[in-house]
Each structure stands twice: as structure tokens, then as C-alpha cells.
Amino acid sequence: MFNEPERFMDSKFFFSRDLDQASMEAVVSLLAGLPLQPEEGDGVELMEAKSQLFLKYFTLFMNLLNDCSEVEDENAQTGGRKRGMSRRLASLRHCTVLAMSNLLNANVDSGLMHSIGLGYHKDLQTRATFMEVLTKILQQGTEFDTLAETVLADRFERLVELVTMMGDQGELPIAMALANVVPCSQWDELARVLVTLFDSRHLLYQLLWNMFSKEVELADSMQTLFRGNSLASKIMTFCFKVYGATYLQKLLDPLLRIVITSSDWQHVSFEVDPTRLEPSESLEENQRNLLQMTEKFFHAIISSSSEFPPQLRSVCHCLYQVVSQRFPQNSIGAVGSAMFLRFINPAIVSPYEAGILDKKPPPRIERGLKLMSKILQSIANHVLFTKEEHMRPFNDFVKTNFDAARRFFLDIASDCPTSDAVNHSLSFISDGNVLALHRLLWNNQEKIGQYLSSNRDHKAVGRRPFDKMATLLAYLGPPEHKPVADTHWSSLNLTSSKFEEFMTRHQVHEKEEFKALKTLSIFYQAGTSKSGNPIFYYVARRFKTGQINGDLLIYHVLLTLKPYYAKPYEIVVDLTHTGPSNRFKTDFLSKWFVVFPGFAYDNVSAVYIYNCNSWVREYTKYHERLLTGLKGSKRLVFIDCPGKLAEHIEHEQQKLPAATLALEEDLKVFHNALKLAHKDTKVSIKVGSTAVQVTSAERTKVLGQSVFLNDIYYASEIEEICLVDENQFTLTIANQGTPLTFMHQECEAIVQSIIHIRTRWELSQPDSIPQHTKIRPKDVPGTLLNIALLNLGSSDPSLRSAAYNLLCALTCTFNLKIEGQLLETSGLCIPANNTLFIVSISKTLAANEPHLTLEFLEECISGFSKSSIELKHLCLEYMTPWLSNLVRFCKHNDDAKRQRVTAILDKLITMTINEKQMYPSIQAKIWGSLGQITDLLDVVLDSFIKTSATGGLGSIKAEVMADTAVALASGNVKLVSSKVIGRMCKIIDKTCLSPTPTLEQHLMWDDIAILARYMLMLSFNNSLDVAAHLPYLFHVVTFLVATGPLSLRASTHGLVINIIHSLCTCSQLHFSEETKQVLRLSLTEFSLPKFYLLFGISKVKSAAVIAFRSSYRDRSFSPGSYERETFALTSLETVTEALLEIMEACMRDIPTCKWLDQWTELAQRFAFQYNPSLQPRALVVFGCISKRVSHGQIKQIIRILSKALESCLKGPDTYNSQVLIEATVIALTKLQPLLNKDSPLHKALFWVAVAVLQLDEVNLYSAGTALLEQNLHTLDSLRIFNDKSPEEVFMAIRNPLEWHCKQMDHFVGLNFNSNFNFALVGHLLKGYRHPSPAIVARTVRILHTLLTLVNKHRNCDKFEVNTQSVAYLAALLTVSEEVRSRCSLKHRKSLLLTDISMENVPMDTYPIHHGDPTYRTLKETQPWSSPKGSEGYLAATYPTVGQTSPRARKSMSLDMGQPSQANTKKLLGTRKSFDHLISDTKAPKRQEMESGITTPPKMRRVAETDYEMETQRISSSQQHPHLRKVSVSESNVLLDEEVLTDPKIQALLLTVLATLVKYTTDEFDQRILYEYLAEASVVFPKVFPVVHNLLDSKINTLLSLCQDPNLLNPIHGIVQSVVYHEESPPQYQTSYLQSFGFNGLWRFAGPFSKQTQIPDYAELIVKFLDALIDTYLPGIDEETSEESLLTPTSPYPPALQSQLSITANLNLSNSMTSLATSQHSPASLPCSKSAVFMQLFPHQGIDKENVELSPTTGHCNSGRTRHGSASQVQKQRSAGSFKRNSIKKIV
Fold it and tell me: What is the end-to-end Cα distance of the chain in Å, rounded?
């Protein structure tokens, strides 16, 4: 047994629960179908206010449920001691769930989006409860249409339907009730609204019948019908006005104009009242005039029945029928009387006001019209004049026309037109009419209810229409405060201020910001004062300083006041809770006094200030100067309570905000409190339901008046309340620094009251339920379906049951086709592991209800993040079947649906990025599935790229997307790879539309970089489908190599590695073992440091590591974070040729493969369109891989070269133009061998090369020498020089261009006309100064080639000194031991060679000039010899290595002294072998030269990149005696006055030697050159002064500083000779060179210009190139020639082409190959075969300039020589070449 206290507590608890139960049952009933109606908020939108109210109540019920749960838990712990408690709690819980269901059911629009988050609540019991609520509202048949975005319009539509609703007997209950209760002052508005709405519903006749019936019913007699201003009269008048305006205009306008303007009527008077007659007027005449006019008008009116508007016929017919029932004897008369009284006569009497005339008629006409209207009205009324004597004379006329009038009235009233015949174009429901209806119903709804309840006519209808109306009005909420327009204000024609004009001109009223301001109800008109003046309200707290545009507020006030401010009006200023955030700043406050017209201020009758507070008092003090005009004003009335306001405005006319009035409700007032401050004040403390008011008990001066101040603090602002002692407490208010302190006797009661309202406010605040996005009606099934499916997988049995029941209710409510699998029941046991069941349900619904896809997936994604890991896995399982449905919406014509698909993909992407734990599952389930949907891939990739771009290259987003692309491809490799690669190619194409200097600067760069990362990710395991896309991949690689930040460059390298790896491993392609070997070696080679350098990652240890470095740990993705490595176009050559060899090797095993054609087409497309970032690359690639070329393409390339030169001259972007120039020259170099052998361009390109050399730029000089070398080699292979010297060949081709070439010669100071060979040498000497050893070596090779070619046609030894060869011999003196040994000194013997055994001395040395002395080397182990090309190259024999030259053993002249052998050996010992240096430091040791074994082809290129110098021995004369033509005797002296008789040649020779001395810093070179100069000073004493100036400073320096006797001896000899032969004046001076155009010889041969700008001289080259095109490529269509090559049918040309063209189609890859040394010389073969075979073996290497020469091998051109030297060696077949049988014979 319980003891007594326990029993008492239990009974108290039971009573409390019973009270809760009864209260909740009442609430359940109350909430059924009850839309929430919030009090009018301050600046809060209605829907937002409703949402807040819903949350408040919903939270309250949730708290109650939580209480129930807690008590149940306590019961369980106490062993069920309180037996009846559980039943009570269950019942209470059931009631609460019902209440929540009813609340949600009635307020779905404001509640569902706020409560839906409970479906994912962390508390499972809460979830289960919410499931029950959802199930209930579905079972109750909730109308989800209220969620629609058009819900407001729909509700207004239903309101209109309700008002126009007609009963069974034709009655209109709501409309007639409204007509009976609306005040007469609003009848005009009501008439307009009713006519408009009923007509729009084709129910105007029914409205008129009801209104006329009531009017007729109340009339005493026919004579009083429609005479007063009844509602029926106003409706009739409005109908006549709206529907008859056009008719009246057409009828009366011609008549009135005749009367006013016709000359016959100009001076006519119509006055018939004798008392008003003018003395000069005749009464009879006036009567005739009036009668004449009246007759004219009357006949016009009765003749217009056919024109009478059908709507007005309907009005007249209705009136006729209604009156007939009450007054059958003269019902037609009522029609005529009403029509003239309300319609025709008002227009006749006031035509200007009716809008018929533009201006008022003259007074005499006005008088006549008024008198005429009386006559017409008498005819219509069917009565004669009796009272007015002066009108009686017209009775005869009136009587005569009775019948005519009657016939007219019968005509227009006897038949009613069908509604179809009535034109409703003038009838429409405007927003104004609907809002006016809303306002009329809202303000009169109680009266309407009372009327319907009491009126016997409408009792039959019942309250149902009214209830519907009340519910609708509750949903719509209170109407906006919109003034009813005063129809008189417009006629005042007020002049608006400049402010208003400005705002109107800028259409401010149309702006969204202004419309939003109007909805805040800061200023509005409502009601009238006791004086009858309109009242305006300004609610100060709704204006937020800084948030609301003040000017817009002024404009809003101006527009609201404008209809009224011409008459007296009054303003109520509500200052409740106004503070600093609502203030007007000083400048803004001053505006209020200037923007309104003066009379607007004058017409303010009174301003009522309500709830003035302490802050307002301080504000008025601060702005006292501005507010001086208001101080003490009698029009200013301070109000401190609504009762005092009622003294001026009737209570029902007051429209203060509800929030203001609510402060006066439920007040607890504590008088006689003391507010403690620097000055203590007596106050009253009022505690209401939402706020605390502190009202001063003593008046304070504000604007000169004594006022009570009322400070208001809302519960939400109270931060702390502290009871100090029983008589004192403090109140801490938010945003107020100092707490407020009060004293009162009942402090505890005050504090408790304040704590109570604060607690109530806190309880009303919702928990952090996340607000769901806006839910539309069609979203509901998908949204609830996800909640049901997700919770079906819960671990809680009650939640699973609730979710199952929700699923059942859902399928029933929305007729989801689930094939009878579901049946709702209670007590169902659902196992926890029901994933398969859930997925099967999901699959069925996905197949049967695809229209739910978008909403369902959106909700799945939304709920995913709120779920546990287990439920997330479940969610992925049941989501997947729906993904394939997305295609339906992508193909849809509805853009909104397509955008929603994109939004879903974006959300899935975000989910992928954020859900790290679920990452693998999401990849497999979501993206693996989406990858299989072909039609969706483009949209998916769009979203991927957009997401990656927003994150930026290297971001987590971008990397996750690239990673996800692999999952996407797993389902469909071919499709995804083609889409990704296709997009990359398209984006690269788009860069041409808006080109930028570099690819990284382009707007599309982020997309390109991101796609490059995608391609890298996909390239592993052949997910790029290399078999289908190899040309496109290589195309992309060549454009991206060494581009972008470090990680991207590493990515490009990784892409190449993965592509080659995929070629090796893919199953679609089957390669021979040889091809596989090439691919494997390529893999090895691309991973070597040399290729790291080419890809711009030379400082990287592992490219793979850098490519995948995480962005958050590394800044290598950032464009500004890496040190850019320079990228040379020659590096691109190497990469391209490496890729070409791979492609060609693979193509050998695929007979019909078109890869190369496709790649060529891609490169060609970019090569010939402007794009600074890609065009140079495309030109190089096109040159490297093209198998054929046309004159049109060469012409285009030369045009590009010309344009690039022009660009250098004009624009600032010189660097890009120079790169483009270099690219065109490289392309010409590569393409020249492919030209037809008869092409004149072969010879013309020599001059292009010379022009490029003249630009004096380091990189361009390199490209120019390559073109020159290729040109000479190609022409020699065509045997052009067999019969003619180079001078004859090239000067002949130059003839048509001579005018341009002479200008170029003059500018450079090297005259080809004067001496071709020395001019050419002048250009080439500059090559010795090039910083690259490779270019120096190439220069030496070119000079050797030219030395051979100048003597070739003469069939003499190449070393024979003659006027043509001497230039080249002189240039080679310092670099060729052979030249020095074969061209001896006549008077002095070289001390360098004396007593040195030739067994140890190289015959030919090639020193390399470089800034670094260590690069300065002498080739000792493999002597240099001149390059040999074809037959006739070997023109003489000389001792081979191991023999001693007889000339070398001759002693030196006595006067020069003789160095010791030891000194000489020491001297030579300082010149290390170049090969030795390379082999020790960089190049791998190679054995092929000795053994003849070929090194692996993959290693070949790397060795050559070190610029390894290659030599070729001249075969001995003993081996090839048949080649010896002319013996060079020992008298072959370089400085031979007998051979060089021309002083010009002597001067040029001396200048070349002096120039070499001037610019060399090498002691060895200086010794050689000074020896020859010493000899020259003796041999050519007269000409020697020409070089004095060049030698003076150098000789003076050496004489003063040098201690080396070997160098000083020849210098002394020079000085002695000069002194000995000195002439005064000398015959030949320095200016002598200028006389024949060689003043630039020594200057041009100097170091390269430091300036980055191309010289202005380039303009001459541009003109030269244009002339060259006009001369040698006339009429060749560039476009046509290009088009013809876009789609080549075969990579091989016809067999009948020249040998040059045919061989051009053999393997052109010059990379990854090795040399084979042969002891057999082609020269020993028959001449023609030798030439052919030598053409088949172009030397190949990464650096075309360094060629290793075999001592016995000649060469020939294959028509396409990938080389840098005219000296060629035979080689084995390249791994990437096509099979050539002839090779075996040579090897």
C-alpha cells in the first residue's frame, strides 16, 4: 500500500494527466482543418510568420511527446507501480500525435518543409512518431496542392469561385450577403469588383438579376426605380460605363462636333427660359434651334440599335424581365428611363467628363445639351412637361416620339444575346479587383456570417459557403494596406516634385526592391478619423537603417499619399520599440521636408505620436534644429494608449499593427516603481505576454510638449534578470551596455513574471530542426518514399513498423504501382535485415513510377548525410535502380527538368567529395552505374568539369572528380574515353576562337588542365582505349608537353608512359615481337632523365610521385608556385619523333591503320590557323610527321613566317612571334625534302635560310643553320652542284628578287653580288659565337659542305686554294687541322707542327667555342675530315692517320724562331678531346664504332642529346684510287698572291682572318691566326692596312700583357712587316671594304645581339618573302592545297613519282635508332647505285647538328632527311621504319 503522501502525489499526477488529456482532446478538435493565422508581424512575410507559428506549436507538441517518453521510462524503472499511468500516457500520446497530424494537415504549406527533417531525427522514437503523423495526414486525405508555388493565386481563384457561386434557385449567397453588409461608402468599389468578377465567369446576367430583383422588390413605384444611389444603380452605371463607352463615342462624337464646329450652329442660341433670355434673342427661334438639335440626336439614337453593345442588351433584357414581374404594365418604360438617366444623358450633358470630347463645349452649347437631355428623358419616361412652363412647348415633340422610343427600347431589351456572343475582352480579373475583393470580404466577414445566419432567403444554403470562405480567408491572411484610389485626385493635375519625376523616369515602382518595400507595411492608409479625414500609419520599427533604401521609402510614402494630400489628412506615427536601428540619419531626415509639395505639408491636420520612448526623446534633442518647425505644434498629438487614440479615431477605424496592440493585452501592472540612474525616475512596470513595458509616471518634454515615455523590451531581448534583494532587481537587455536597475516593493513578483514570459518565449523556439528546401506538391511522394524506405532499414522495430505503414499509406494515397506487395496492419514483425525487400520495392517503383525519380533522388541525397553508416549503405542500394531514369529528363524539352538533373548530379558529386567513409561504395554504386548510361555521359562530364573548375586545378574537388572518372569509365570504357578525349580536343579547338599568348592564360585553361588530369587517371589499364584514340592522344600530348604547373607536366609525362604501357598490354592489338621490343625500350627511355628534361620536369626524382601529390600538401598545382623550365621547340621535335616511331612501329602490324593520317590532319588544322600558344607547336609536329607536302602548304608556312616578322615589328608580344618564326623555319626544314625535285623552292629556300640568319637572334640562328644545312644537302642529293657552283645556282634563283635582296645585303653589309662566297662565310662566322656547342658544330659542317660543293663542278681537290674556296678555307683554319695541313704557309712554317710526329697529331681539329672554357676541346682520337655526300665528294687523297705529312716536317723560317718539342706537346696536351669529355660526363660508352655492333635503338637518342661530335674519316687514296682526280701539290698555299690576284678577295680574306682574331679568346686559335696574318702582312702588304683597325687594339693588348713567345713571334712579324711596307697614305684602307659592300663583314660575325627585339631590318625580309611567294608560288591556292590533304586516301603516293618523293614515304622517324659502321664505301659501287643507297640512309638523331662520321661512308638523301648534317652515314633499319630490302646489301 502507498502511504498517504504518495497517494496524494499520485492522485495529483493523475488529475494533471487527465487535465492534459482533456486539453489535448480539445486541441485535436480545434486543430481539425484550422489554418494558422499569425498576428501581423513587423516586416515579416505572411508565410514566414505562419511557418514560425507552426514551428512554435509543433515544438510544443514534440516537447509533450518527449515528456510522455520520459515518464514511461521512469515507470519502467519503478517496476510499474503506477498502473493506470501507462494507459493515460498512451492515450495522451495518441492525442498528441492526432493534434500534430491535424496541425500539419491544415497547414501543409507552412509546416511540411519545417517538419520533414524529423524523418531523419537522431532520436528514433521521434522519427517513429513523425512517421505516424505522416501516415495519418495521408489517410486524412491532405491536399498537398497547397504546397504549390501558385498556391496564393489558386486560393484567390477559389475565393472568386466562392463569391460567384450560385445556388440551386439561382441565388448568389456570398455576393448578396456582401452587397447587404458593405458600407455605402464602398459601393462604388464593390460594384466594380462584382461586375468584373461575374463577367469574367460569364455570370453577369445572374448578378444583375439578383441585384435588380432586390432593387425592384424594395421600390414603392415605377417612378422611384433606380433613382437613388443604390448598389443596383451603381452596378448598372458601371456596366453602362464599361461596356458602352465605345458605343457612346461612336454615336455622340460626330453629332457634338457638328453642333460645336459647324458654321450653321456657330451663333445659335438654345435658351428657352424667358427669364434667362438675352435681349437680342428670339424665343421662337431658340425653341426651333433646340427642337432641331434634339430631333437630330434622337433619330441618331433610335437608329443605332444595331450598334448597341451585346453586354448592354443583356443588362437591358435583365432589367426588362425583372421589372415585368413587379410592374408588368410599363416594364419597358423602366428600361428606357434607366438607360437615358444612367447612360445616354450623362454623356450628353458632360461630354468632356465622359471622355467624348477633348475639351469642354462653350456655355451656350452646354445649356442647349442640358435642355435637350430633359426632352430626351421625358420621351424615355413617357411623360409630358407639366411643372416647367418654358418646356411645355416641346410636349408635342415628346408625345410624337413616344412610340419610336418604345420600339427602340423593345428592340434592345426584348432578346438576350448568348454568352458566346458577348465579347469579354474588356472583362478580366486584375490583381487590384481580386485584392479589393479580399479586403472587402476580410473586413466584413463577421457581418456576412451574421447575415447568412439570419436572412431567411439564405438559410437554405446554410453556413457551408461561409465556412469555406472563412477558411480561405484564414489561409490568405489579412489583406495588404492598400488605399482605395480616390477618383478625384487625378483631375487636380498636381505638379510633382523633381524627386518624383526622377523616380518615375527610372521606373522605380517596377523594381523588385521597391515591391519588397511595399510588402513591409511601413507606411499605409487605413480608415478615417472622426473629422472624416483619411488616416495614414507610419510604423517606425519596420524601417531598418542600412537595410532599406531611404529614397525608396520616401517614394513609397509619396505615392501612397498622393491621392489624398490635396485635402486634409492625418498621420499616426507608431514609435513602439523604436531604437537606433530604425533612425533616420541627419541627411535623410532633412529630405522629408523638401520632397513633398508645399500644400501636402499644409494639409496635414494632425500627427498622432504613439508610444514615444526615451530613445526618441534623445533623437529629437540631437536633431532639434531640423525639427524646430514641429516644436510646440498644435497639430502634434502624443498618445500613450489606444483609449486616447479613440478620442480622435473611432475604435473600428483604428488600424494600428497587431503587434502594437498585443502589448496592451494580459498586462500585469506594477505602479510606483523607481528606475535608478544618474537621475532616478518614477515608472510603472507592465509585464505582458511578450514584452516588458517601462512607462514613466512623470511627463517629460519632447518637441515642446509634456509626454509620458514608454520603453518596451521584448522577451527575446532580455538576457538576464537578477533579484538583488527583496526591493531591487536588475534587467540586462541585449545590445545595451549597462543593466537597468529598478526598485519596488513587489520585486519578486515582477521578476517571476518576467522570467515566465522569457521561459515561454524560449519554449516556443523550435529545436534545431533543419529546414528542408521548398517542397512542391509533386515532391511529396518522392520525399516521403525515401523517408519510408530509409527508416525501414532501421534497427528500431517500432520505427520499422511506422515506416512500413507510411509506405503503405503512400502507395494508396498516390496510387503507386507496387503490385499488391504491401498491406498496412498493426503488430507486424519486420526483421532488421530486410535490405533485399527494400531494394526490390525500390526497383519495382523505379520501373513503374519513373516520374518520381527527380524528387526521390533529391530526397535520398538530402537524407543521406543525416543517416548512419549502415543506413547510408542501404540508401545507396535502393537509390541505384532510379539512376537510369534520369535519361528521361535529359531528353526532355523542359529546361527546368534538365536543370534539375544537373542539380542532382551536382549533389551526388558533393556527396562523393564530402562522404569520405563512403567513398568506395559511392564510386562503385553511383558512378559505376551512371557510366553505363550512354545518353547521360555528356551531362555527367559537364558537371564533373564544372565542379573541378570551381575547385581549381589540384584541389580536392578536381582530384576526386578525376578519380571518379575512372569509376565512370569502368562501366563503358569506349564511351567514356571517347567523350573525355573528344571534349579535350574540342576545348583545344576552342582556344583558337580567342587566342592567348600562352595556353595557361586562356579562359579554357582550367578545363584543359582538368581534362588532362582525367586523361591521366583513365590512361592506366587502357581506360583511354588507345587502339581507337592514339592519334588524338599524341595530338594532345604534343600540345601539353612541358605546359602548366609542375604536377601537370608530370601528369603529361605519366600520360605518355601509360599510353605506351596500354599499347603493350591491351588485348585489342596484336604486335610482333619486334614492335613489342620497341615499345618496351620506349618505356625505358621515356623514364630517363633526358626525357624528364624534355617534359619540363628535370628537377623531379619521380614523375609519378609528383603527378599524384596531394594538393593540400603541395603547391605544385598553383600556376605561380613553380619555376618554369624553358621549353625549346627542338625538344618538341624530339618528343614528336619519339611518338612517331612508336606509332609507325605499331602501324607495321596493322595493315589498314590510318593513325598517322589522322594525327597529321589534326596537326595541320592547328598549323594553319592563328593561335600563339599552339600554332608553333602544331607547325613543328606537322613538319615532323607529315609524309607529303604541297606548294600551297609551303606557301602558307612562308606567309605565316612573314606575318610573324610583321608582328615582331608592330606588337609588344615579340617572344611569341619569335617562337612562331622559329617554328615555321623548323617546319620548312622538315618539309623541304618532301617537295617535288623540280620545285624552284628548293633553291629559293636557301635565301629564306640566309634571311633568318640575318635576324641576329640566337634561337632563330640555330633554326636558320638547320634549314641551310638541309637545303644544301637536299640540293646536292638532286645533283644540282655537279655542273654549277653554288654561286651560279643561288644567284640565278635570286635574280627576280634582286631588288629586295640588294636592300638586305646593304643593311647587313655583306654583298652577295660582289662576292657570294665571302658574303655567305660572313653569315656563318657568327655561328662560331653561338652559345650552343651543337650549333658551332653545325656551322663547321656547313662550311665543310660548302668547301666541297664549290669545287665539285670543277672536279678538283676540295682543299685547292682558289678564289671560290679560299673563303671557306679561311673560315675553317682554326677548327680544321686538315685545312691547316693542306693549305700551307709560303714564307713561314707553322711552329705548331714542327718536329711533331703526325702519328700523334690529329689531321683535323674542331674546337668548340663556348663561354665555358671546359667546352673548348680538340678532337684527337677521331680526326675530323670534310663531310662527303655522293660521288665526286672525294676529290683528292691524302695520308691517312699514322702517316706523316711531308709538309708537316718542313722546318720553320729562321726569323720566327723554333719552339721546343716539349713546349709543343705541352700545348697540344691542353686541348682535350670533345668526345672524351662527353663520354666521361654524360654519354654512355658506345662500342659500335669499333665492333660494328648496333646499340639498342632506344639508347641512341639520349646519347645524341649530349651533342656528341661525330666524325667521318676520308678513305685513303690507296683504297679508292679511282676517286683521285687532281693532286694537291705542296705549293697549295692559302695566301698565294698568284692565285688571289684580286685586291677585293685579298681584303676579304684578311678581314675574315682578322675578324676571327678579334672575336676569339682561345690562345691556340690566336697563334694559328696570327701566323697566317703574319704571312699575309708579307704576301699582301698593300691590302693589309684594311685590317689595321681590327687588329690594333688586340695586338697592343697582347704586346703589353702576353708573355708567350710562340704568340708574340708572329705579332712581331706583323708589326715589322707593317712598318716595312708602310705607305703614306696607304692605297687600301678600312673604308675599302665599304666600296664593294662588305662593311658589315667583321661586325655581323661578332657576338649575338643582347636585345630581345627583332631589328627593324625585318621589314625588308617581309617584303622579300612576299616577293618570293609572288615569284615562285604564283596563283597557288593555299586553301585548296590544304583541303586536298585533309583526308589522304593513302599514306603512300603513286609509284610514278620521282625517286625523291618515293623515298620520302619511307620511315621518317629519326629517333631511337643506332648507327652501324661499315667498312664498305658507297663510292666503290657503281655511281647510280651509290647515289640511290646513300639517299636511303639519312642519319637520324635527336640533335640534327651532331653526326658521327664514318671514315669510309658516303651518303645520299632519301628525300626526307631527319638530320642536321649534310654528312650522312649508313645505318641499320630503324625500329620504327618500314621494311627496306636494299639495306641488307649495304650492312
Answer: 120
1381 or 334: whose pLDDT is higher?
1381
Top mean pLDDT of 319-333, 628-642, 708-722 is at 708-722
Which residue has cell 463645349? 361
Q: Which range has the worst mean pLDDT, 226-235, 820-829, 917-926? A: 820-829
Distance CA(1557)–CA(949), nearest Å, equals: 60
| Identity of the residue numbered 1080 | R
Q: Could you tell me the strand order of the sheet in which 710-714 lies?
A: 710-714, 691-696, 681-687, 668-676, 740-743, 728-733, 718-725
**Integer angstrom CA distances of residue 1132 from 860, 935, 1175, 1179, 1497:** 51, 38, 13, 11, 19
CA angle 1130, 1136, 1139 (to 5 degrees): 145
pLDDT at 1392: 46
Residue by residue, what is the 3-state secondary structure of 900-914?
A: HHHHHHHHHHHHHHH
Q: What are 636's three cell numbers? A: 502634434
> How confident is the model over 536-594, as pLDDT tens digits?
999 998 888 878 887 888 888 888 888 888 889 999 999 898 888 888 887 777 777 77
Question: Rounded CA gap, 604 and 1760, in Å?
Answer: 100
Could you give the dihedral angle defined by the CA atoms of residues 339, 340, 346 and 349, in that order, rounded to the nearest 10 degrees?
160
CA distance readout (Å), 591 to 536, 553, 625, 1305: 19, 11, 14, 80
Residue 1632 · residue 1547 · CB < 8 Å? yes
CA–CA distance from 1622 to each of 752, 1187, 1580, 1608 (Å)? 127, 63, 12, 21
**Cell triple for residue 1509?**
661530335
Residue 1137 C-alpha cell reads as 619523333
Does residue 723 surpass a pLDDT of 90?
A: no
pTM: 0.58
Residue 1465 in contact with residue 1399, Cβ under 8 Å?
no
Neighbours of 168 (CB within 10 A): 7
Mean pLDDT for the chain?
75
Omega within 30 of 0 (cis) for the link into 1625: yes
Is the pLDDT at 505 greater than 60, yes or no?
Answer: no
Please list, in sequence order, all residues whose beta carbon lies within 8 angstroms of the beta carbon of residue 572, skipping any fewer than 6 positions away. Answer: 535, 536, 537, 538, 607, 608, 610, 645, 649, 656
Query: What confidence tier does 1624 reach under pLDDT thresholds 50, 70, 90?
Result: low
Nearest-angstrom CA–CA distance, 1689 and 598: 90
φ and ψ at residue 473, rounded to 5 degrees: -65, -35
pLDDT score for 510: 66
C-alpha cell belonging to residue 1139: 611518338
pLDDT in tens, 710-720: 999 988 888 88
The Cα–Cα gap between 1725 and 1731 comes to 9
If pLDDT is split at 50, 70 and 90, which confidence band does 1228 have? very high
Q: Nearest to residue 632, comparing CAs of 704, 701, 531, 568?
A: 704
Angle 258-261-266 from CA coordinates, rounded to 5°: 105
Residue whose C-alpha is closest to residue 851's, from 825, 823, 816:
816
Helix (H) or strand (E) holding 671: strand 668-676
Residue 1497 has pLDDT above 70, yes or no: no
Spatial CA neighbour of 1300 closest among 1313, 1283, 1287:
1313
β-pairing verdict for 700-702 and 534-539:
unpaired
If you ran DSSP here, which 8-state letter would residue 607 be given? E
What's at 605, amino acid-wise? Answer: S
Let me know the angle formed at the C-alpha of 409 by 403 and 412, rounded to the nearest 5 degrees.
140
Listed residue (1360, 1485, 1358, 1369) closest to 1421, CA to CA? 1485
Extract long-range pairs of 1253-1256: CB within 8 Å, 24+ residues apart: 1253/1323, 1253/1324, 1253/1326, 1254/1304, 1254/1307, 1254/1308, 1254/1323, 1254/1644, 1254/1657, 1254/1661, 1255/1221, 1255/1654, 1255/1655, 1255/1657, 1255/1658, 1255/1661, 1256/1326, 1256/1644, 1256/1648, 1256/1649, 1256/1655
